[in-house]
Amino acid sequence: MNVLWYLIPISLALGGLGLALFFWALRSGQYEDVTGAAERILDDEDRPL
Amino acid sequence: MPTVRSVDAVTGAAAHTRLSAEELLLASRQVDVDLWHTDLSIPGISCGGCIRKIEDALGRLPGVARARVNLSTRRVAVDWRESEGPPPLGETLTRLGYEAYLHEVQADGKDPQLGRFIRALAAAGFASMNIMGLSISVWSGAAGETRELFHWLSAAIALPTLAYSGAVFFQSAWQALRRGQTNMDVPISLGVLLAFAMSLYDTIQRLPHAYFDAAVALLFFLLIGRTLDHLMREKARTAVNGLGRLAAYGATVVGPDGSRAYLATEELEPGMTIILRPGDRIPVDAVVLKGRSDIDAALATGESLPEHVIPGSRLRAGTLNLTGPLTICATASSQESFLAEMMRLMEAAEGGRTQFRRIADRAASLYVPVVHSAALLSFIGWLLATGDWHRSLTIAVAVLIITCPCALGLAVPMVQVVAARALFERGIMVKDGSALERLVEVDTVVFDKTGTLTLGRPRLRRDAAPDPAYLAIAAQIGANSRHPYAQALAAGTAPADIALDRIVERAGLGLEARSGDDVWRLGRSAWALGENAHSDFGGTVLACNGKFAQAFTFEDELRPGATAAVTALRARGYDLEIMSGDTPEAVTPVAGELGITIVQAGLLPAEKTTYLESLAQAGRKTLMVGDGLNDAPALVAAHVSIAPGNAADVGRQAADFVFLHPDLESVPYAIKIARVADRLIRQNFAFAALYNLVALPVAIAGYVTPLLAALAMSGSSILVVANALRLNPRFLRRPPPARPT
User: Per residue in B66-100, pLDDT tens?
Assistant: First the structure.
């Protein structure tokens, strides 16, 4: 029973962290071009930015 | 016919959608002191290689700070420094083989609704997973203090989720109730809120059952459907918006003192003097001051023959200047021009389809009273039988949850998302799910002619059997002009192998070429033959030194698949009609070739909408297929509408469906998919009804536990989604049954 007192907050915090990261990714535009990202992976030549 | 040449003709015609520095500046916005941002839409981007090619080429241009391709929206965002002036983006992309169009930044901001849905979905997903985990412990035997702790935790997670994710449904339900209607969101909101309130009460009272998981999982499942539905529409809208803009961005205005300035179309005023190059679209209604040219009005008014203009001729906004430079005087501002007139007609025409109620709302209006009165009756019944109001209320809530607004809420959007995807793969964009439902009701298909049944491009008539030698010469000369007839000659034949030097285009008259001492003229007979012109032989003539050599006649080329599409539609029992703004002489042969008997020609835009409204009053449901600016009001007035991808900008925005492939068979295909989707939606409803028939007595009898509710809800949702996935074009070998009429 005691184990619950710290395991549940940890699990909720980890889940909440995932949610927060998803929101951050959404806001920083990482889902703007999903198709393009899939193609860019294959483009492996180094280019100066 | 050598296809390579005809492709050349297409790109040749498109090549004059160039982007001048002025246009670029007009559509850009300043993001920093010295930094400007331009969005270009490039419909031709298709693969990873294109990304690389375009970003490399644009990045190397002087002044470009950053070029980033978005493959999903087929756009490229370019940041450039003002100090060096707008970079030659258009020319660079044309050289790479891409057509680029300016994309107005203000035209469509990012859709805020979609972001709202995705965040609500993520929050609901997080909450439902956690609450489900806690619930599973309760179901597997957690008791006493542990159970209470888990219930309180669930309540703490569920409350903010309801407030955040549930608001999507609550708002929509409230709006419907305020108008005295019901929609699917009403039972959903009521079920979720009652389940939460009931569970909270049970938690406080330390009772064994709580429905937090059911309430939140319901939101999660329904938000999946809602978000996918929205994504599909967003995708179609993006694709349609990315198609090339055909209206003029602006025009070069000459001031009274001879100064030149490039002004946006909206800033043009009556009385201004405007210079037009060949290939420019007329920005506002105007009258010609100086110059001669030919005007292509196919996209604006549906007239397929180019019109010859001389000083004094009136010009309509949206038509295309083909052969010669013109100086024109604006007679109306853009708010009063032909285009604006179309916009007003479109607004007036709106309302024809407002009476249409979505199938989900119609189902809800049947479902809501039944379920809610069942819940109320079971509450009263149990109260009378036992006198225990808490138990009666629990059972009433169980009835509301178990009767599965979930499967009903998913029944329509899931099928429509899968249908839209199937259509998307064939290049057909669906702007709105309700369009699929309206398409099923159609009994009459009305076609525009120019640009819809035909390509709006003349083709050389072969039955006249011109002399091949002369034809080859005409093709060689014609390759130098933008005039549709000249291009048709060039497209149809391999050019002759004779040396022509000095080819001059005489705007509005024709082309003149010299070969040694011979002077070849291709164009109007009166001009080409000079004083030798006998009577008035109309049409296009090739003459050598003023002597008649060969006459050419042209016909409007049918769109590929037109015959097959018309045949397929007729076989399925649709009434077919043609409604064109072109002359009867041009419409009749096309109608004859396709075997369509109900034909109207020379219609004004307002007459088109009036006719469609009269059809609607007679109880007919019309599908309008049209492309021109003059069709835009009709596209709105019809029950449902389809436009080809090369339609006028306004028409594309107005139509419910846009097909990007040139093939007209997209129309019967869209109808076919819509009918299959309709069948699947009805199956889903039938399934949900059947399920309710089983579940309702169990719930009324009071045997529903939270575990049973969760299983039933997920199970029915999965079944509905699986049924929707059957709409896969690969599984659609069997043709749908004939239309019952």
Answer: 888 888 888 888 888 877 778 888 888 888 888 88
- The per-residue DSSP string of B78-105 comes to EEEEGGG-S--HHHHHHHHT---EE--T
Under 8 Å between Cβ of B446 and B624? yes
Contact B523, B544 (CB under 8 A): no
CA distance B681 to B522: 60
- Of B162-176, B512-526, B609-623, the poorest mean pLDDT is in B512-526
Backbone angles phi, psi at B301, to 5 degrees: -115, -5
Q: What is the pTM of this model?
A: 0.80
| CB proximity B156 to A under 8 Å | no
Q: With contacts defined as CB-CB under 8 Å, which chain A residues touch B48?
A: 39-40, 42-43
Helix, strand, coil abundance in chain B, percent, nearest 5: 50, 20, 30
- Predicted confidence (pLDDT) per residue in B723-739, tens digit: 988 887 666 655 444 44
pLDDT at res. B688: 84
Tokens of B218: 């319901």
The model's pLDDT over B284-293, given as tens digits with 9 standing for 90+, comes to 888 998 888 8
Kindly indicate the confidence band of residue A6, based on its pLDDT and cuts at 50, 70 and 90. Answer: confident
Residue B674: C-alpha distances to residues A39, B434, B442, B680, B717 (Å): 33, 10, 11, 10, 22
Distance CA B273, CA B386 (A): 89
Which amino acid belongs to residue B86?
P
Asked if B556 and B586 count as a contact pair (C-beta separation under 8 A), the reply is yes
Chain A residues in contact with B123 by the CB 8 A cut-off are 19
Contact B126, B158 (CB under 8 A): no
Q: For chain A, give the longest Cα–Cα distance.
A: 57
> CA-to-CA distance for B616 and B611, rounded, in angstroms?
9
Exposed, middle or buried, B726 (CB in 10 Å: 0-12/13-18/19+)?
middle
CA distance B574 to B736: 15
Q: Which one of the listed residues B448, B582, B663, B678 is annotated catalytic?
A: B448
Q: Which two structure tokens, joined as six digits, stand for B199? A: 């569970």
First vs last C-alpha separation in chain B: 42
pLDDT in tens, B652-685: 888 889 998 888 999 999 999 999 999 999 999 8
Show residues of chain B in contact with A12, CB under 8 Å: 130, 153, 157
B576, B598 Cβ separation under 8 angstroms: yes
Q: Which of B222, B214, B180, B181 is nearest to B197 (CA)?
A: B214
Inter-chain touch A18–B123, beta carbons under 8 Å:
no
* B118 close contact with A: CB closer than 8 A: yes
Averaged pLDDT of chain B: 82
The verdict on whether B448 is a catalytic residue reads: yes
Mention every residue, 6+ apart, whose C-beta is less than 8 A from residue A3.
Answer: none
CA distance B284 to B278: 16
The one-letter code for the residue type at B276 is L
Which of A22, A26, A39 has the CB atom closest to B51's CB atom?
A39
Taking an 8 Å cut-off on Cβ atoms, the answer to whether A26 and B118 are in contact is yes
What is the DSSP secondary structure assignment for residue B337, as one 8-state letter? S
Rounded to 10 deg, the angle between the B666-700 and B562-571 helix axes is: 40
Query: At residue B16, does pLDDT exceed 50?
Result: no
Residue B426 per-residue DSSP state? T
Rounded Cα distance between B485 and B12, Å, is 13
Q: Residue B368 and residue B385: Cα distance in Å, rounded?
A: 25
CA distance B550 to B534: 14
Confidence at B567, pLDDT banded by 50, 70, 90:
very high
Of the partner residues B56, B72, B157, the one whose CB lies closest to the CB of residue A35: B72
Distance between CA B586 and CA B602 in Å, rounded? 10
